[in-house]
Design brief:
301 residues; Heat Shock Protein 90; five-stranded mixed sheet; three-stranded antiparallel sheet; extended
Length: 301
C-alpha cells in the first residue's frame, strides 16, 4: 500500500513532463517545417532556440522533481524508522517497570530485568546521540586540537566498542592485518567514522559475523583502511545512494535490520572533512562487502 502510493506520486510528474516535452518537440518540428517553406531563417532560428530552451527547462524541472520526490520518500522512511526505534525501547522499559512494580521477583530475575532495561536505555541513548550528531557535524571535535593518532590502537578500541554493543567477543568476530600508521586529526571524528563502519560490519554480517580489518600505507601520503564483512553485500545500483542522508534500501515496513539511514552519511561527511573519501566494493570471493576509507596519513615511526 505504501509502496503503491509512493510509486504513483512519482509517476504523475514524470508522465506530465514527458507529455509536455513531447508536445514541445512536436511544435518545434512543425515550426521548423512551416518556416522552412517560407524561408524565414531569422524567425526560424529564434523560434528553434526558444523551443530548445523550453525543452531544456522541462528536462531540468523533471530531474529536480524526481530528486525531490525521492528525498521525500527517504525522509518518510526515516520518520518511520525513528518512530519505531524510539517506541520499541520505551515500550520495553515500560513493560519491565510495570512488571517490577506489580510482582515480587527473586533477585536473579530482578537482575535480569535490570540488565535488559540498561541495554534498552543504551539503545535509546545511541539513537538520540546519532540524531544530534547529524545536526552538528561541522562542529564535531572542534573543542579539541588535531593530534597524531595511532590508527591500529584506535581501530581496536572501536572494534571493542562495537562488540560490546552487539554482545560478542572481539577475538571471535574480528581479524586484523594492520600496517603501522599515523593519522593527524581529531580523535572524536576518527572514532565516529570507524565506530559506525565496524558496528555496521557486525550488524549486517551473517548470523556468525566475521569482520576483517586491514590497514595499508600508500606511498603518496595516504592511508587506506578496509573493513570487510561476511553479509549479503551491497547491490551495485545503490552503492552511491547508501551514503546519502536518510537513505535505506527497501521499504521500512519490510526491513529486518534496525537503523535510521544516517550512519553512512555521517561517515562520508566526516571523511570529506578530513580530506579523505569512503567507498564500498564487493569482496574478492563475492560474499559480503568491503568499505574502504582513504585518509591523509603516514607510516608510523
Amino acid at each position: 500500500m505504501v509502496y503503491f502510493r509512493k510509486r504513483r506520486r512519482l509517476r504523475v510528474p514524470v508522465t506530465l513532463n514527458v507529455v509536455l516535452m513531447s508536445l514541445n518537440v512536436v511544435l518545434m518540428v512543425l515550426w521548423i517545417v512551416l518556416l522552412a517553406q517560407f524561408k524565414s531563417w531569422v524567425t526560424l532560428t529564434i523560434g528553434t532556440i526558444v523551443f530548445s530552451l523550453i525543452l531544456i527547462g522541462l528536462v531540468f524541472y523533471l530531474v529536480l522533481t524526481i530528486k525531490e520526490i525521492r528525498l521525500n520518500q527517504r525522509q518518510a522512511n526515516f520518520v518511520d524508522s525513528v518512530t519505531h526505534e524510539l517506541k520499541s525501547p520505551i515500550a520495553s522499559l515500560q513493560l519491565y517497570l510495570e512488571t517490577l512494580q506489580m510482582r515480587k521477583l527473586d533477585t536473579e530475575r530482578r537482575e535480569e530485568f535490570y540488565r535488559v532495561m540498561e541495554a534498552e536505555l543504551g539503545r535509546l541513548d545511541q539513537l538520540i546521540s546519532q540524531l544530534l550528531e547529524v545536526g552538528r557535524l561541522d562542529a564535531i571535535g572542534q573543542e579539541s586540537e588535531p593530534e597524531d593518532i595511532d590508527l591500529a590502537i584506535l581501530l581496536r578500541k572501536c572494534a571493542e566498542t562495537a562488540c560490546a554493543h552487539h554482545k560478542c567477543s572481539i577475538d571471535e568476530v574480528f581479524s586484523f592485518d594492520l600496517q603501522p600508521a599515523v593519522i593527524n586529526g581529531r580523535r572524536l571524528v576518527l572514532e565516529m567514522i570507524f565506530r559506525n563502519l565496524l558496528d555496521n560490519a557486525i550488524k549486517y554480517g551473517s548470523e556468525s559475523p566475521a569482520v576483517d580489518v586491514r590497514v595499508e600505507v600508500k606511498s603518496r601520503g595516504r592511508v587506506v583502511t578496509r573493513i570487510s564483512d561476511n553479509g549479503k553485500g551491497v547491490e551495485p545500483e545503490i552503492r552511491k545512494k547508501i551514503f546519502r542522508m536518510f537513505y535505506r534500501g527497501g521499504s521500512e515496513l519490510e526491513r529486518t535490520q534496525k537503523g535510521t539511514g544516517l550512519g553512512l552519511y555521517i561517515v562520508r561527511t566526516l571523511a570529506h572533512m578530513l580530506k579523505g573519501q569512503v567507498s564500498v566494493h564487493d569482496q574478492a570471493d563475492g560474499q559480503g562487502s568491503t568499505f574502504e576509507v582513504e585518509l591523509p596519513g603516514r607510516a608510523a615511526a
